[in-house]
Design goal:
Helix 5 (about 170-185) links the parallel strand 7 and strand 8. The chain is elongated and about 80 Å long. The two termini are about 50 Å apart. Helix 2 (about 95-105) packs across helix 3 (about 110-125), helix 2 packs parallel to helix 4 (about 140-150) and helix 3 (about 110-125) crosses helix 4. It has 8 helices and 20 strands. It folds into 2 domains: about 10-235, Rossmann fold (3-Layer(aba) Sandwich), CATH 3.40.50.300; about 240-360, OB fold (Dihydrolipoamide Acetyltransferase, E2P) (Beta Barrel), CATH 2.40.50.140. By secondary structure, the chain is an alpha+beta fold. It has a 6-stranded mixed sheet, with helices on both faces. Strands 13-12-11-14-20 form a 5-stranded antiparallel sheet. Strands 15-19-16-17-18 form a 5-stranded antiparallel sheet, with no helix packed on it. The structure holds adenosine-5'-diphosphate. Adenosine-5'-diphosphate binds near residues 17, 22 and 47.
C-alpha cells in the first residue's frame, strides 16, 4: 500500500465564523508518518481545524502547508487527503465492496485495478468475507473498518479521522483504537485524529496538541503533557490534577513558602521546580498523594496536611478520596488491594504529597 509520507504545517492559522473567532493563531508541525491527535473539549475547534486541512473550511489568516507547499485555496478533491467521519457516512444501499470501490470508480480506474485495490483494502481491515453485505448487516466496529477501507483505498497522502471511535461501545472502542494504531503503522500514513477523549489520544497518538477555545495550549507526547503541563487547562485535561491557587511568598535556600488560598501557609521543599515569588498555581496528581490515618510517623519526603474525608469512590484498582483541607478539597488516589480497609466520609486523615511531583503553573 501507500508509503508516501508527508508533513503538515499550520502557520498562524486563524478562522472566524462571522464575528466568532474559532481558531486563533494556531501553529503546528506534524511530521511525516506521525500519528497525531487533536485533543480538546467539545467546541474547542478540533473539527474545524481538521476540516480546514481537508479543504472543507477556509482560514482567513495564516498558511497551511503539505510537504512545505501552501495548499490554501486547493479544493478538497485535489488535496489527496482521506477523511473518516464520526458517523462513517457509508452508502446504505450499496454493498461493502461497492462502498469501498466508490472512490476508485469515480476516478474511472480500470476494472481489474479496482478489483485488486478493493480486495487489498478489505483484507487490510479483515473484512474480505463481508464484501457482499450491506452496512446495516454489520456491527459498529465493522462499519468503522469499511469506512477506513474506503478511505485508504484511494491511497491518500494523509489520513484524517474525526472522532472515529465515539459511536462504539467502550470495549469495542478499546479494541478499535488498537486496530487503528496497527493500521496506521502498516500504512505509515501521516494521520491526524480528532478526539475529546484524553485516554484515546494518549493510547494511540505519537504526539498530540491540546486545544481550548481555539487556542493551542501545548504540543507533545502524552508523557510530556502529563508530566510537564504548561498551564492549568492542560494539567486538568490530560489526566486529573489538584490545582491550588495561591501565592509564593518566600523562596529561601531549599524551601518555598506557599500561601494557598483557603488553606493557609505551606512550607514546601524545593525538590522539584524552583518557583518565582508571586501568584501561582500549585499542581500535583492524585496518585502522588498518600492518605493515612492521623498519628504515626510521617516520612520527610512528603508534605503532610491534615484533612477530613468528604467523599470517596471505589473504582476497584483504586479508591479516590475527596478530602476537605481548610476551605478546599484535595483528591488522593489510593491503590487498592484485598483486605485494605477504606476510609469513610468524616474520617480524620493525613495527606502526604510527594514533594518531587509538585509543579508551579501560571494562574
Ligand atoms: P470541536 O470539534 O472541538 O467540538 P468545532 O470545531 O466543531 O469544535 O467547533 C468550534 C466552534 O465553532 C464551536 O463554538 C462551534 O459552535 C463553532 N462552529 C463550528 N462550525 C460552525 C459553523 N459552520 N458556523 C458557525 N459556527 C461554527
Amino acid at each position: 500500500m501507500n508509503l508516501n509520507q508527508v508533513s503538515l504545517e499550520a502557520r498562524h492559522i486563524s478562522l472566524s465564523y462571522g464575528a466568532t473567532e474559532v481558531l486563533k493563531d494556531v501553529n503546528i508541525r506534524i511530521e511525516p508518518g506521525e500519528f497525531f491527535a487533536l485533543l480538546g473539549p467539545s467546541g474547542s475547534g478540533k473539527s474545524t481545524l481538521l476540516r480546514l486541512i481537508a479543504g472543507f473550511n477556509q482560514h482567513q489568516r495564516g498558511e497551511l502547508l503539505i510537504d512545505g507547499k501552501d495548499i490554501t485555496g486547493t479544493p478538497p478533491h485535489l488535496r489527496n487527503v482521506g477523511m473518516v467521519f464520526q458517523n462513517y457516512a457509508l452508502w446504505p444501499h450499496m454493498t461493502v465492496w461497492d462502498n469501498v470501490a466508490f472512490g476508485l470508480v469515480e476516478r474511472r480506474e480500470a476494472k481489474d485495478v479496482i478489483r485488486r485495490k478493493v480486495g487489498a483494502a478489505l483484507e487490510l481491515v479483515g473484512l474480505s468475507q463481508y464484501g457482499q453485505r450491506r452496512p446495516n448487516q454489520l456491527s459498529g466496529g465493522q462499519q468503522q473498518r469499511v469506512a477506513l477501507a474506503r478511505t485508504v483505498v484511494i491511497e491518500p497522502k494523509m489520513l484524517l479521522l474525526d472522532e472515529p471511535l465515539s459511536n462504539l461501545d467502550k470495549n469495542l472502542r478499546v479494541q478499535m483504537r488498537e486496530e487503528l494504531k496497527n493500521l496506521q503503522r502498516t500504512l505509515g500514513l501521516t494521520t491526524i485524529f480528532v478526539t475529546h477523549d484524553q485516554e484515546e489520544a494518549m493510547t494511540t497518538a505519537d504526539r498530540m496538541a491540546v486545544l481550548d477555545l481555539g487556542v493551542l495550549q501545548q504540543v507533545g507526547a502524552a508523557s510530556e503533557l502529563f508530566d510537564r503541563p504548561v498551564n492549568r487547562f492542560v494539567a486538568g485535561f490530560v489526566g486529573t490534577a489538584n490545582l491550588l491557587g495561591g501565592r509564593v511568598t518566600q523562596v529561601r535556600g531549599e524551601s518555598v513558602t506557599f500561601d494557598a488560598d483557603g488553606i493557609g501557609e505551606l512550607l514546601l521543599p524545593c525538590s522539584g521546580e524552583r518557583p518565582e515569588p508571586g501568584r501561582t498555581t500549585l499542581a500535583f496528581r492524585p496518585h502522588t498523594v498518600l492518605i493515612r490515618a492521623r498519628g504515626g510517623q510521617p516520612d520527610a519526603a512528603r508534605i503532610w496536611i491534615d484533612g477530613r474525608v468528604e467523599s470517596s469512590e471505589f473504582l476497584g484498582e483504586l479508591s479516590r478520596y475527596r478530602v476537605r483541607v481548610g476551605e478546599k478539597f484535595i483528591v488522593a488516589n489510593q491503590a487498592h488491594y484485598a483486605g485494605l480497609s477504606l476510609f469513610q466520609p468524616g474520617a480524620e486523615v493525613r495527606l502526604g504529597i510527594e514533594a518531587t511531583q509538585l509543579r508551579y503553573l501560571p494562574n
